[in-house]
Structures are given as structure tokens and as C-alpha cells.
Amino acid sequence: MVRILGSQPSILNQFIAELRDVEIQQDSLRFRRNLERIGEFFAIRISETMKYVSKDVVTSLGIADVPVLSAYPVLATILRAGLPIHQGLLNIYDRSENAFISAYRKYHKDGRTSIQLEYSSVPELEGKVLILTDAILATGASMVLAYRELVSKGRPLHTHIVTVVASAEGVEYIKRHLSNTEVTLWVGAIDDELTAQAFVVPGLGDAGDLAYGNKI
Fold it and tell me: Within its chain, how far is the Cα of 147 from the centroid?
């Protein structure tokens, strides 16, 4: 299932517009904060799909019957661009366990690129809801690799994949490779073009560099 939240009018599109704006991008603090706010937006929408239990809450005047989450999801992100979105999710799901994956795109001398996974830190996932995030979904290869690394440590009940901007090709890649899994893909916006160097156009640039500075 693919849910494109930017297709409906909401404040989400204001945040995405600012992420794309080359002038506003000069302010890395605002860039990170917009990613964080988008994470909070996605967290609330995803919460609408979760299971709840009734809880009696004692107030100063009586007892209120309130539906609360039956269990908090596990939050996972791909370093480093996904960190601000992850923080936004964690602001909402403040009791969640967390998982982190280090993956990067390696460029070979013959022009090929491959996704290298170096490290993962993963709590128990069996039977839990998992939310996996990254800022950009380009080819989709790193997201599929990260998902497979996570589920090798335990099978989640359901996985929500969250990304701000995706290429149409990346979305199709996710559909092909994760079609037989319990996965929902949540997207802010889908862009049509993916260059030979795997950059989404118009996209928003290198989210990791814009958030945390250029790398060598």
C-alpha cells in the first residue's frame, strides 16, 4: 500500500516546499526542523492505523475512559539524513525503542554504484509495529536493504516506510521487492525523474549534507 500524503492539501506541503527551496536550504537549522516536523506529521497519521486499548484515567474530578496505544512502535532510520525525521517520530512516540542502520552509496571505477551496509543496532522486532524512515527514496535499493537487515533480526507485525520525497522509479522498486510483505509506504511527494547518478529531480538535493554539512 502506498499513501501519498502530499496529494491532499495540508501544512505538510508547506514544509516540503521549504525543504526544496534553495534559499531556505541555506539555513541548516530550519532544514532539520522542517524534516523533524514532517516526521511528527507522519507519526500522527500513522497513529490512526494502530491498535488502541481503553484506559481509565483518574482526573481531579473523576475518571475518564481514554483510548491509548496498545503498544508503541519500534522506530528505525538510515543514517544520516533520516535522523531529523526519526526525531520527529520520536517526539510523538516518546516511549519507543529505536533501531539505526548505517548504509551508503558506493561509486565504483567502472561507473557502477552499489549500496553498502556497515552497521545496524536493532531491538527485538518480533510481532511489533516497525516504522523505517529515510529522507529521500531514490532507487529504493537502500531502503529494501535496510528493511531486509531489520527483519533478519525478527519479523514485525507490520512495517511503515516513511520518506519525504520519492522517485516514481523508487516507489515501483519497493512495490516489486516488498510486494509479499506487510509494508505500507508513506510518501510526502513523488517526483518523476531519476538521473543516471540516482538523483531525484526536482527533488531537494542531498538531504544529509543540507542537514549536517558537506562530507568528503
Answer: 12
Residue 16 is assigned to a structural domain of this protein: yes
Q: Of 145, 216, 147, which is closest to residue 185 (Cα–Cα)?
A: 147
pLDDT tens for 5-18 read 999 999 999 999 99
Range of the domain at 45: 2-49+73-212
Instruction: Give the count of domains, the chain.
Output: 1
Residue 119: strand, helix, or coil = strand
- In whole angstroms, what is the distance from residue 74 CA to residue 97 CA? 5
Q: How far lies 66's CA from each of 47, 126, 163, 177, in Å? A: 15, 27, 31, 39
Q: Is residue 81 part of a domain?
A: yes
pLDDT higher than threshold 70 for residue 108: no
Q: pTM of the entire structure?
A: 0.92
Residue type for 210, please? L
